[in-house]
From TrEMBL:
Its EC number is 6.3.5.-. InterPro entries: Asp/Glu-ADT_sf_sub_c, GatC. Heterotrimer of A, B and C subunits. The gene is gatC. GO terms for biological process: glutaminyl-tRNAGln biosynthesis via transamidation; regulation of translational fidelity; translation. Keywords: ATP-binding, Ligase, Nucleotide-binding, Protein biosynthesis, Transferase. It catalyses: L-glutamyl-tRNA(Gln) + L-glutamine + ATP + H2O = L-glutaminyl-tRNA(Gln) + L-glutamate + ADP + phosphate + H(+); L-aspartyl-tRNA(Asn) + L-glutamine + ATP + H2O = L-asparaginyl-tRNA(Asn) + L-glutamate + ADP + phosphate + 2 H(+). Pfam families: GatC (PF02686). The lineage of its organism: Bacteria, Pseudomonadati, Pseudomonadota, Gammaproteobacteria, Oceanospirillales. One of its GO terms (molecular function) is asparaginyl-tRNA synthase (glutamine-hydrolyzing) activity. NCBIfam families: gatC. It is an enzyme of class 6 (ligase). This is Aspartyl/glutamyl-tRNA(Asn/Gln) amidotransferase subunit C. It comes from the Bacteria.
């Protein structure tokens, strides 16, 4: 699909962008170059390539899951204005 100045003007209108008519010719040329590059990428044979989340084979080092702070839930429940069955009671905010 070739992009001309008319298509650039329509897209600019939909995107609420101001594009000068003098710039629309250069913009349409650049957009056509981008589409040509995308077409070139789509022609690549990727049938034997496994999908991957990252181009490098890296792993995220994770720390050990250890408790670092004491449990203060019972103390917080004692001073809460309203609590029931280990949960804080709050006023309803969604009708």
């Amino acid at each position: 699909m070739a992009i001309d100045s008319k298509v650039v003007a329509q897209v600019a209108h939909l995107a609420r962008l101001k594009v000068d008519e003098g710039d629309s010719a250069a913009l349409s040329d650049r957009l056509n170059d981008i589409l040509a590059m995308v077409d070139q990428l789509q022609q690549a044979d990727v049938a034997d390539v496994a999908p991957m989340a990252h181009p490098l084979d890296v792993t995220q080092p994770l720390r050990d899951d250890e408790v670092s702070e004491p449990n203060v839930r019972d103390k917080a429940m004692d001073i809460a204005p309203a609590a029931e069955d280990g949960c804080f009671l709050v006023p309803r905010v969604i009708e």
